[in-house]
Structure formats: structure tokens, C-alpha cells
Design goal:
The complex is a heterodimer of chains A (about 230) and B (about 325). Chain A has about 230 residues and is mainly alpha-helical. Chain A is built from 10 helices and no strands. Chain A starts with a helix and ends in a 21-residue tail after the last helix. Chain B has a single domain, classed as Rossmann fold, CATH 3.40.50. Chain B has a 6-stranded parallel beta sheet with strand order 2-1-3-4-5-6, sandwiched between helices. The chains are: A mainly alpha (about 230), B alpha/beta (about 325).
């Protein structure tokens, strides 16, 4: 068990530092990287990102096991998302380079690129958090770029082309699947929170949680409404 | 070795910053979401029996980031509070709201870290300039950013607004009476005051804010404020940080609450004189004397009283060179 965690830690550090020796090792031994390590990294990243955005869980009073279930679920959905990303990259990579990379190897490699998002919990930091999240996204993109470069053994510009087309394809997919995904998300949300509506900070400002917050302090004597 | 130490300090700093919003978020999740509607219901019921406030104007003082609790403001601030009370004898001046906790719970109250804060408080009583006192400032400064953050501000500010509202009611304020309320926020208290405005104004309370050297953001409370008066010293770099750190206050921030309030003439910036933020020659300094013979403490006190009364502010006159 300890060895597993140590291996996860070493791999995360390797991706964070964009360690080329790790890339070379992976290129030479693509099957050596255990699936469990790559999945663990993506799960951690998914959970950490949700911690960073946990304001939505707190506002909606998701506590205890529901809170942890949300983190685990986000971890799984993150793995799934990047598996689809890997599928997209293998397709684009085939078209651009003519090389066929096995999907299991591609998934393992692409999941590694989520390592910077393990710091996603830092988005919690007041005021600076959203900026840190943008930096992490950019870092993740650079990591993915490096992974693609190693995976296909191509130069940086070709790797960038594959990465960018893959990213664009994912954006298009998420736009096309927005409606069914929202439906699925609402279903999961209902199961987790017990209510169907999602309370946001904006709702709180509008006073929707404790109506009538726009107090109607009608004075009995005058019968007038206070603006 | 040095880099390891720097790394460790950075990790600790990031972790402390990360847990900063959890107090107010946890409060909302565990009790605030139930408490606030109860408060609103109780206020509505109470309002039916009350016709007018016991005072014509209410002033609530919110301390700076050095405060440990509502009943333990830094000693240097006490003469100013007393001075304001004396200068505004017909006003109700309230100073027992701790602005850095949504529950008005001081740092030495029932908290897991209460012992640490007790120790810091003792050290600070022995030596007001003790370095450990900076821990209080750091902790409360993080809450200032929680208050200013659009994600966390709503839960934080609804908590502090509730505390201010309860303090007003304890002192005879009648909701619906439209009795004016002025929040005085020193340093970080200025931002906390702005944050509370949104919800206080929801209760039809006309709220103005006087910021004394406050680090202010472009808080959405500005959309509902009667007036904001920012009193500042020319040698106070901390109050300037607000205009640098908060993008909504930058000159090009079209459409931000700050810009809107500025355009509407609801913000006044008044230069008091060559005051610093702290250490010496600051707003509370009774020993530094201005050319007109008043101490800096008196200048600040007079300025606050003048703003509350709607009179011109007597700033430190410039010495002829």
C-alpha cells in the first residue's frame, strides 16, 4: 500500500515538474504505468477541484457522507471525462501523425495530465482562488501537451496541434451533450441533496433562501410600504 | 535549508488561506440557513409592535483587523470610540459587534483555537507591539478577503449584517422607522461594513458607511448604500491597497459597483492629513499634534462626527513651507 502511495506521489511530482525523464520512461515502457496510479491521480484531481468549488456544497448544506459522496462522484466523473479526452486524442493523433496508439495507453497517459488539478482545492482561497484555478487549468494544458508529445514522439508544435484540436473537440462535445448531462447532473444532485434546486450565492443575495428578505416592513399606522 | 523553510512557510500560508472561508461557510451550512429565516420572522413579528426608534441616529463602530472580540478591541481604538460618543451625545453609538466572525464570536470565545488567542491577547496586553499580535491581524485580514469575495461574501455578510441588526435592536432600533444608521469601519472594518450594507438595506434601513483608512473593495453593497465617506491619511499605504487589489476599483472597471456609486456621487474621498496606518502618527495617535493644535486622534474623531452630522470636515491644515 505504502509503495502505491509513494508511486502516486512520485508520478504527481514528475508531472508537476514536467519531468522529461518520466516522459522518456513512460514512452519506453507504456505498459509499466499501472492503471490504478493514473486513475488515483485523476480521482484526486476531481475531488480536489470540487473541494475548491465546495462553496456550492456548503450553500446547499451538503454535509457528512453526502459531502464525501459528492467528492468521490466528482472524482469518477473526472476520470470519465479524461478517458473521453484520451479517445479524442487517439483519433486526432491517428489523423495527424498516422500513428495508432492503444486506447488503454492513451487513457493512462492523459489521466496523468490531471496531476496539476490536484491543487484544485486552492481555489477555496478567498479572492485569489479563481485566478489560481485558471493557472492550474493552463498548467494542466501544458502537462497534456507534454504527454501528447511523449505519447506520439512528435515535435512540440505537432503535439500542440493535437492537444488544441482535442480540447476544441471536448468543448464541442460538452456543448452538444449539455442538455442530457444537465439532466443527469440534476438527478444526481437530487439524490445527494434531497432537493432539486441548486442554491447559489446570487440566490442568497436575492434573499430566496429566507423570503421575504426584501422586507415589507409595512407600518400598521400608515399602511405604507417601505421602499 | 532556507528554501525548505520558505517552502514550509508558503505551504502553511496557503493552507491557512484555504481554510479561511470555512468558518462562515460552515456556519451557514450548520445553522445560518435556519437561523436567518428565524431572525427575519422574529424581526417581522417584533416590528409590528414598534413604532419608532429610541434614538434619531445609530452609529455602529466596527473595529480594525487587530480586534480579538467585540468586547476586546485594541486599546488604542478606545479613545476614538469614546470621543465619538462624546461628540455625538444624541446618537446611539454601538461598539460591541465583532466584525470578523459571522456569529459575533470573539477569537477567545468557544473555539478550538481559543487558547492560542488567549495567549496572544495576554502577550498583547503586556506589550501592544508584540509580534504575536500580528497573528490576529493575519487571521482577520483573511476574513476581510472572505467578505470581499463574491463567492463567500453572501454567507459572510449575511452573518455580520445579522449581528449588526441584532445590536441595533438591542439598542432600541425600530425596523421600518427608517432611522439612519452609520457604520464606522476602521481599516478592515471598512470592508466588513460595506459587505453588511447589502442585507441591512434589504431591511429598509438607510445605511451610510464611514471608512477610516479602510481597505475597500468594489462590494455590491455600494449599490444599496446611502453614502460612503472614505477618510484617509496621505501616508497610509494600506488603505491604498484597496484600489490596487480589487479590480472593480480600477479606473477602467466600467459597470462595477464602485464605479456606479462614484458616478452617482455616493462616494466621498476625504484626505485627513499626513496620517499613517499604524505605528506612529496614525489616526488614533493622541501624541502627534497637527498645526492647528489638535491631536491626530482628535482630527479623526472630529472628522467622523462631522460626517455623521453632515458638516464640513476639518482636515489637518497644510503648513506653509
Amino acid at each position: 500500500m505504502w509503495e502505491f502511495f509513494a508511486a502516486v506521489g512520485r508520478t504527481i511530482w514528475g508531472v508537476w515538474t514536467l519531468d522529461t525523464s518520466l516522459g522518456v520512461w513512460f514512452a519506453a515502457n507504456p505498459q509499466s504505468l499501472q492503471v490504478s496510479i493514473a486513475v488515483a491521480i485523476a480521482m484526486l484531481a476531481g475531488a480536489s477541484i470540487l473541494v475548491g468549488n465546495s462553496v456550492v456544497l456548503f450553500l446547499n448544506r451538503i454535509r457528512g457522507w453526502r459531502f464525501f459522496a459528492s467528492l468521490v462522484l466528482n472524482g469518477f466523473s473526472f476520470v470519465l471525462l479524461y478517458a473521453v479526452q484520451a479517445l479524442a486524442i487517439t483519433g486526432i493523433g491517428l489523423m495527424v501523425t498516422g500513428q495508432r496508439v492503444g486506447l488503454p495507453v492513451a487513457i493512462r497517459a492523459v489521466l496523468l495530465a490531471t496531476a496539476p488539478m490536484i491543487l484544485g482545492f486552492l481555489e477555496l482561497i478567498p479572492y485569489l482562488g479563481p485566478g489560481i484555478a485558471r493557472i492550474l487549468q493552463a498548467w494542466g494544458m501544458v502537462a497534456l501537451w507534454t504527454v501528447v508529445e511523449v505519447l506520439y514522439g512528435v515535435n512540440r508544435s505537432t503535439a500542440l496541434l493535437i492537444t488544441l484540436i482535442g480540447w476544441g473537440l471536448m468543448q464541442a462535445l460538452s456543448w452538444m451533450l449539455a442538455a442530457p448531462l444537465t439532466k443527469l447532473g440534476n438527478l444526481v444532485w437530487l439524490r445527494l441533496s434531497g432537493h432539486s434546486t441548486l442554491l447559489t450565492a446570487h440566490d442568497l443575495l436575492a434573499g430566496q433562501q429566507f423570503m421575504p428578505v426584501e422586507f415589507d416592513f409595512t407600518l400598521p399606522e400608515t399602511g405604507g410600504r417601505q421602499p | 535549508m532556507i528554501w525548505s523553510l520558505v517552502g514550509l512557510v508558503l505551504v502553511v500560508l496557503f493552507l491557512v488561506l484555504t481554510v479561511g472561508p470555512l468558518e462562515s461557510l460552515g456556519w451557514w451550512s450548520h445553522q445560518g440557513a435556519d437561523e436567518v429565516p428565524r431572525t427575519v420572522a422574529a424581526l417581522l413579528a417584533q416590528q409590528r409592535d414598534t413604532v419608532s426608534s429610541t434614538h434619531a441616529h445609530y452609529v455602529v463602530y466596527l473595529s480594525g483587523i487587530g480586534a480579538i472580540g467585540g468586547d476586546s478591541v485594541p486599546p488604542e481604538e478606545l479613545p476614538l470610540i469614546e470621543g465619538v460618543r462624546e461628540a455625538l451625545p444624541n446618537h446611539c453609538v454601538i461598539s460591541d459587534v465583532f466584525p470578523y466572525s459571522v456569529e459575533n464570536r470573539g477569537l477567545t470565545a468557544q473555539r478550538p483555537t481559543a487558547r492560542v488567542w488567549h495567549w496572544v491577547e495576554k502577550a498583547r496586553l503586556k506589550d501592544p507591539e508584540a509580534a504575536v499580535g500580528m497573528l490576529v491581524n493575519a487571521r482577520n485580514a483573511i476574513q476581510l478577503f472572505v467578505c470581499a469575495d463574491r463567492r463567500y461574501g453572501p454567507t459572510y455578510n449575511i452573518g455580520t449584517a445579522q449581528q449588526v441588526l441584532e445590536a441595533l435592536l438591542r439598542n432600541g432600533y425600530a425596523l421600518g422607522s427608517k432611522t439612519p444608521v452609520t457604520l464606522i469601519g476602521w481599516s478592515g472594518g471598512g470592508q466588513i461594513a460595506l459587505g453588511a450594507v447589502w442585507f441591512l438595506a434589504s431591511a429598509s434601513i438607510p445605511v451610510s458607511v464611514i471608512s477610516l483608512g479602510g481597505m475597500l473593495s468594489d462590494d455590491i453593497g455600494l449599490d444599496r448604500i446611502e453614502h460612503l465617506t472614505h477618510l484617509y491619511g496621505t501616508k497610509d499605504p494600506l488603505q491604498r491597497l484597496g484600489a490596487i487589489l480589487f479590480a472593480g476599483r480600477w479606473p477602467g472597471a466600467v459597470g462595477s459597483p464602485w464605479t456606479r456609486a462614484m458616478k452617482a456621487g455616493r462616494i466621498s474621498m476625504i484626505q485627513l492629513g499626513p496620517m499613517q496606518h499604524n505605528v506612529t502618527a496614525h489616526y488614533f495617535d493622541p501624541d502627534t499634534i497637527a498645526p492647528d493644535g489638535r491631536s491626530y486622534l482628535q482630527v479623526s474623531t472630529d472628522a467622523i462626527a462631522a460626517v455623521v452630522n453632515g458638516e464640513p470636515v476639518a482636515v489637518v491644515p497644510v503648513e506653509p513651507s
